[in-house]
Fold Ion transporter.
Amino acid sequence: MGAPADNDTPLKQQLRGIIFGTNTTAGRYFDLILMVCIILSVGLILIDTIEPIHQAYGGVIRVAEWIFTIIFTIEYLVRLYCSINRWHYARSFFGVVDLVSILPSYLALIFPGANFALAIRILRLFRIFRVLKLLRYLSEGNILLRAMVHSSRKIFIFFFSVSLIVLVLSVIMYVIEGPQNGFSSIPKAMYWTIVTITTVGYGDITPQTSLGQAIAAATMLIGYSILAIPTGILTAEISQEMGRERDLRKCSNCGHKGHDKNASYCNHCGTELESLELEIEQKD
Amino acid sequence: MGAPADNDTPLKQQLRGIIFGTNTTAGRYFDLILMVCIILSVGLILIDTIEPIHQAYGGVIRVAEWIFTIIFTIEYLVRLYCSINRWHYARSFFGVVDLVSILPSYLALIFPGANFALAIRILRLFRIFRVLKLLRYLSEGNILLRAMVHSSRKIFIFFFSVSLIVLVLSVIMYVIEGPQNGFSSIPKAMYWTIVTITTVGYGDITPQTSLGQAIAAATMLIGYSILAIPTGILTAEISQEMGRERDLRKCSNCGHKGHDKNASYCNHCGTELESLELEIEQKD
Amino acid sequence: MGAPADNDTPLKQQLRGIIFGTNTTAGRYFDLILMVCIILSVGLILIDTIEPIHQAYGGVIRVAEWIFTIIFTIEYLVRLYCSINRWHYARSFFGVVDLVSILPSYLALIFPGANFALAIRILRLFRIFRVLKLLRYLSEGNILLRAMVHSSRKIFIFFFSVSLIVLVLSVIMYVIEGPQNGFSSIPKAMYWTIVTITTVGYGDITPQTSLGQAIAAATMLIGYSILAIPTGILTAEISQEMGRERDLRKCSNCGHKGHDKNASYCNHCGTELESLELEIEQKD
Amino acid sequence: MGAPADNDTPLKQQLRGIIFGTNTTAGRYFDLILMVCIILSVGLILIDTIEPIHQAYGGVIRVAEWIFTIIFTIEYLVRLYCSINRWHYARSFFGVVDLVSILPSYLALIFPGANFALAIRILRLFRIFRVLKLLRYLSEGNILLRAMVHSSRKIFIFFFSVSLIVLVLSVIMYVIEGPQNGFSSIPKAMYWTIVTITTVGYGDITPQTSLGQAIAAATMLIGYSILAIPTGILTAEISQEMGRERDLRKCSNCGHKGHDKNASYCNHCGTELESLELEIEQKD
C-alpha cells in the first residue's frame, strides 16, 4: 500500500518542503495559513453551539464549515501524495488527526440524524490537535516535558497519597453530615472533598454541622499545604533541567561549562564557543 | 503465643516468599492480585452508599463483600501461619490493619443493627491502608517524606502563625458583620476566615457590609501571599534532598560527586561508577 | 513645533530638575505630592460610583475633581514648557498619559451627556499609570521583569497547552451536562472549565450528573497540578536572576564572585570590593 | 519609676529565671502552664460567642474567665516585680500585651454596658499574642522572617502591580456588567476582582454577560499565573537563606563549608567540627 521512495518526483519534493518543512519561507507561510484555518474552523464550531447565533447565522456557518472541510481535505490528500511513505503517514498520530478532522463533515452527509450530527461536530474538534505540531519546534517545551517526565513518579505518589486522604475525609464527612446535608453518598462526599481540597470551593454542597465545618476547615488547610508538594517537585526538576541545559555548552579550550545560551565566548578563558545548534545536535 | 523460629518448614518459607516478598515473580503477582481485591472491595463499599444502587444491587454487593471477606480472612490466616514471629506480625501496623479489615463483616453477623452496620462498613475501609505498603518500595517517596520531615518545624511555625492571623481576622469580621450577616459566632467566623484565606471560597457565608468586604479582600490577599511560604519551604527542601541523592554517587578514582542516577561512568575522569544500589545499601 | 535646546533658560533647567528629576530634594517632594494627588483623585472617581455617596457628596466631589484637573493641567503645561524637546515629551508614553488624564474634565464641559460623562470619568483613571514611573527606580522590579521576560516563551507554551486542555474538557462537559444543567453552549462550558481549572469555583454553574461531577473532580486535580508549572518556571528563573545579580560583584584581586549586595570586602581574600553602583553602571 | 538594678534580691533573680527564662526546668514548666492557660482562656472567649452555649453555660464561663484574669494579674505583677528595669518591661511590646489582656475584665466591672462588654471581651483576645514569644526560640522562624524581610521590596512591588491590574479590571467590569448585574460601584467591582484574581471565587457576584464572562476568565488566568511570582520570590530567598545557614559551619582545619546542621566531623578532611551553638553565638 505504501508508495516506494524511488518514484520521488521534484513536484513531490517541493510540496513536501512546503507542507512538512518548517525552515523554508513557503513552509512557514503554509503553517501560518493552516493554523489560522484551524483556529477559525474551531471558533466556528464553538460559537455555533450558542443557540441565538445558531438560529441567526446557522446557514452561513454551515457554508463556512464546508469550505474549511474542503481545504483540509485537499491538504490531507496532498500530504498523502507527497509523503515518502504514505502508509507510514496515514498511521502516524498526525495522519490520524488529519483524517478524523475531515471525516465528520462527510459522515454528516450520510447520516443526517440530529443527535448524531452533534457527535460528528465534536469529532471535528480533533483538528485542534494539529496545533500540537508546533510544540515540536520549541526547545522550551522539551525542558518542561523532561521535567514532568522526570518527576512523574513523584507526582504519581503524590496523587496516590491525595486519593487516600480524599477517601478517608469523604467517609468521615459522609458519616458526620449525612444525606440530609447534601452528602448523599460516599462518591458525592468524595466530589465535595476534591472541590474543597483543591480550593475550588463551588459551594453547591457545604457542611452544615459545627463538626462538619471544623473538618472542612482542616480539609482546606491540608489542601492548602499539600499544594506545595507538586510545586516543590516540579520547581526542583525545572531548576535542574535549566542547569543541565546551561551545562551543554562546554569550552573546547579549558573545559569550563555553564555558559549562557547566547554567550559567544567562554566566560573563563575567552575562547570562542561553538554555536549552540552544533552542540545540541552533537548531543543527539 | 509467638511461634518460635525453629519449626520453620519449607512450606512456610515458600508462603512467606509469596506473601511477604516482593522480589519474586510469585510475590509480585500476589501483591498485584491483592491490590486489585482491595480496590474492588473498597469500590463496592463506596458505590453501595449511593441509594439507588443500594436498592437495585444491594444483594449482589453483599454477596461480593462476603467473597472478599473470605479471601482476606484466608490471607490473614496464611500470613499469621507463615510469619516467623506470629505475635510480632499480629501487633504490627499492617497486622492490625489486616484484622480490622475482616472483623466488621463478622461483627455484622453478630450485631445486625442497621446503624451499627454502617459503622462496620466504614471500618472495612481501613483495608485501603494496606496499599500504603507499596509506598515502601518507591525511593522517590522517601525524598518527599524526608523533605517533609526536615521542613516539619518550619511548616508547624507557619501553621501556628496562620492560626493567629485567622483568629484575629475572625474576631474583626465577627464584630463588623455580626450574626445578622451569617457570622453568628467567632468559631463560625473562623470557619469563614479559613474558607477565605485558603482561597476555597464556598460563598455560603459572604460579607455584606462595605467594611467587611474590604477586610475580606485583605484576607484573600494575605491568603494568596502566604501560600508562597510552605511552597518555598518545601521546594528548598526538595531541591536539597535531590542534590543530596545525586551526591550519593562518588567516583572511587577522583572522588567527583553529583553524577546522574543512571550514569555509568564518572563525568570527570571516566572511571566506571559503582551501581547505585550498592552505594545506597552501603549508606544504610 | 518642538522647541530647540538652545533657548534653555536657568528657570527651565531648575523646573526640569524639580519635575523630571528624582535625585534632588525638591524633585522627590514634587514626586511625592504628585503621587498623593493622583491617588486622591483616583480615589474620588472610585467612591463617586457608589450611588448613595454620589447623591450625598456629588457636588463636593465635582469641585474637588476640578481642583485636581487644574493642578494636573498646570503640571502638564510646565512639563511641556521645561522639557528639552517638547514634541518628544508630548508624544512619549507619559506625555500622552498626562494629556489623557486632564482632557476628560474639559470634554465633559463641552459634551454634557450623562452616559458620555461616565466614559470620560473612566478615561481619567489612566492617570494612575503615572505611578508606573516609580517602578523604574526599583532595581528589584528589574529582576522580576527579567525573570518574566526570560520565562515568557515557557509561560506561553504553558498557556497554549492549558487552552487545549480547557477546550477538550469544555466539549466533554457540554456533551455530558448539556444546556439543561447550565452548560448552554461550548463558550459557556469553557467559562465553567476556566472557573474550575483555576480553582476559582464560583458555583454559578455546577455539574449535576454523576459523570459530570467525576470529570469536574478530574478537572480540579488537573488545575491543581498544572499550577505547579508556571510557579516552577518562574522560581527557577528568579533563582537564576538572583544568582546572576550576586555574581555582578567580582573581587578585583582574586576574581572571587558571589558576594552579598551589601558586602564591602571579598569573602575569599579580604580585598575591598568596588561599590555596587559602579559595578552596575559598568555593566550597562 | 523604673527600679534600679542594685536592689536585686535572690528571690527576684529566682523568679526572673522562672518567668523570663526558658533554659531551666522550672522556666519551661512555667511557660507550658502559661500557654495552656492562654489557650484555654481564648477558647472560652471563642465558644462564649456561640449563642446556645452562652445561654447554657454563660455563668460557668464567667467564673472561669475571672479565674484566668486573676492568674494573669498575678503573673503581670510578678513580672513587674522581678524585672531588672520595671519601666522598660511595662513599655515593652509584651509588657503592654500583658496589661491589655487583664484590663478588659476589670473595665467590665466599672462599665457594665452590654455592647461595651463585647469590645472588652475582644480586647482580651490580645493575650493570644503572648504566644508569639515562643517564636523567638525557634531558629527556623528566623529563616522565614529573614526571607520575608529580604523579599519585602519585591513583594511590595508585586502587590503594587496587582493593585493596578485590579483597578483596571474593576473599571472594565463595572462598565461592562454595570449595577444591574451586581457590580453596583467600582469599589464593589474591585471586591469582585480580588475575589476572582485570588481564586477565592465566592460566587456572590458573578458576571452575567458573555463579554463579562470572557474578561472574568482572563482575570482568573491572570490571577492563576501571577500567584507564581510571590512563590518564586520567597522560594529563591528561602533557598538562599538555607544555603547561608549551612555555610555557618566552617571546618577549622581545611576551611570547608556547607556541613549539615547535625554533622560532627568535616565531610572534607574529617576534623571534628565545633558545635553549632558556639558557631551561631560567635556570629551574633
Remarks:
- Chain D touches chain C through 46 residues (CB under 8 Å).
